[in-house]
Amino acid sequence: MLQKMKPKVGLLGIMQGLYDESQPEIPENQTKFVKELTAYLDDVVEIDFPEIAKDRDGIERIVKTFNDKDYDGIISLNLLYSPGMRVVQAMKDNRLPVLIANIQPLAEVTQDWNWSLLTTNQGIHGSQDTANMLMRLGVKPTIITEDWHTKAFKDFVEDWAAAAYTKKRLKSVKGAVFNKMQGMGDILGDEVAYFQKFGMEIDYESIGLVVEEFEKVTKEEVDEQVAEDAKNFEIMPNLPKESHRYAARLQIAFEKFMVKKGYEAFTPNFTIYHDDGARLRQLPILGASNLLAKGYGYSAEGDVHAMLLTVIGHLLIGDPHFTEMYSLDYVRDAALMSHMGEGNWKIARKDRPIKLIDRPLDIGDMENPPTPIYSAQPGETTMATLVPVEGSRYRMLISKGEVLDTEEIPGIPMNYSFFKPDQGIRASMNDWLKYGGTHHQVMFTGDHMRRLRMLCDVLDIECIEV
């Protein structure tokens, strides 16, 4: 199961070693500044600041230590001027994302400015030299120039650290694939390149292993899950209890299978159940929804790219919602978002109950799957899709907009929402199609454009806003 954790980064504080003897108060003051900085950021990122690096050997030793400890990233901070050449070999061997924090102790040059204050607030030209060296190395750091006391600075560091953490964490994630939908082209890509680029492992599994776990589920486990559903949903009276219990049992079986084999994400194609001989009687609509809400990655139809994006969503932002654009509404200037019924009910609007219904479904030749019905919380929203372009070339399309506050539509038997892109549905969809946007998307409540852009930067993939 995937959870957001506080990132851990190393802070590379660099300066000349000219002042140790003549002005020992300067290194002391700059060390105090870094400690104040790390205390200010402590609620969003854990920072390791071992010491000030005052020469090339110190820089290389500290950067190597950060890499050996496998931190999420490195914050590079010029405490005074430091010659840029000193960072070259350290950064040449570095594999961690880098943030250049172009900051200084004081935010304003005042009338009492003097030589001492000039000396201790001269990081800008060191940052310029360092950034120039990284540019010529082909290293692309994230850069922030800001007053470090501000919320804007803290928010920026938090977003970057979350992106760096997500990149690292992806390397330990495994996802299970239960077949792919035949002929569906935009879910296909180079799976070797996928593993090389993102580090997430995908394995093809047999649904028979889930059937084995299904047969072991106890009555007590089903009782517990049904009770949990009763807390989260308004269970419709016409939903047969046995159908609900079957869905709960199927959910438990999928989770037991994933825990047993170390998976944190899964993507099944709906045909596998019938092709297996119908040993399982329902599609896991409720189970997929509950597991996505619980913290597992999920997509439908064997789409490993959408599955990866839900994994990213859990690690980077929280509460990713798997969906697709079902229909366009030119009057609302929006897209009707839905799928077969799976989705993350954690994003549901707060003023309406989430209904659990007996839902007829003529796909897969199976029994009615209990299905949660809800719409997303109205307001600012971010939509994203991950596009396999060619080989190891990927791009992410991101669209910021809003979920509209609309009336219920009784005839839609699955979760649905109206998403209105900021640039309008016509222009947004033109760009979506132009850049190869896929038909599965992941939706997030709120504005997360910068954090997603930062992730694209640290992953070295193209990012296009549509």
Automatic annotation (TrEMBL):
<keyword id="KW-0479">Metal-binding</keyword>
<keyword id="KW-0413">Isomerase</keyword>
<dbReference type="InterPro" id="IPR055389">
    <property type="entry name" value="AraA_N"/>
</dbReference>
<dbReference type="GO" id="GO:0046872">
    <property type="term" value="F:metal ion binding"/>
</dbReference>
<dbReference type="Pfam" id="PF11762">
    <property type="entry name" value="Arabinose_Iso_C"/>
</dbReference>
<dbReference type="Pfam" id="PF24856">
    <property type="entry name" value="AraA_central"/>
</dbReference>
<dbReference type="InterPro" id="IPR038583">
    <property type="entry name" value="AraA_N_sf"/>
</dbReference>
<dbReference type="GO" id="GO:0019569">
    <property type="term" value="P:L-arabinose catabolic process to D-xylulose 5-phosphate"/>
</dbReference>
<dbReference type="GO" id="GO:0008733">
    <property type="term" value="F:L-arabinose isomerase activity"/>
</dbReference>
<feature type="domain" description="L-arabinose isomerase N-terminal">
    <location>
        <begin position="16"/>
        <end position="168"/>
    </location>
</feature>
<dbReference type="InterPro" id="IPR009015">
    <property type="entry name" value="Fucose_isomerase_N/cen_sf"/>
</dbReference>
<feature type="domain" description="L-arabinose isomerase central">
    <location>
        <begin position="187"/>
        <end position="310"/>
    </location>
</feature>
<dbReference type="InterPro" id="IPR003762">
    <property type="entry name" value="Lara_isomerase"/>
</dbReference>
<keyword id="KW-0119">Carbohydrate metabolism</keyword>
<dbReference type="GO" id="GO:0005829">
    <property type="term" value="C:cytosol"/>
</dbReference>
<dbReference type="Pfam" id="PF02610">
    <property type="entry name" value="AraA_N"/>
</dbReference>
<dbReference type="InterPro" id="IPR004216">
    <property type="entry name" value="Fuc/Ara_isomerase_C"/>
</dbReference>
<feature type="domain" description="L-arabinose isomerase C-terminal">
    <location>
        <begin position="320"/>
        <end position="462"/>
    </location>
</feature>
<keyword id="KW-0054">Arabinose catabolism</keyword>
<dbReference type="InterPro" id="IPR024664">
    <property type="entry name" value="Ara_Isoase_C"/>
</dbReference>
<dbReference type="InterPro" id="IPR055390">
    <property type="entry name" value="AraA_central"/>
</dbReference>
<protein>
    <submittedName>
        <fullName>L-arabinose isomerase</fullName>
        <ecNumber>5.3.1.4</ecNumber>
    </submittedName>
</protein>
<keyword id="KW-0464">Manganese</keyword>
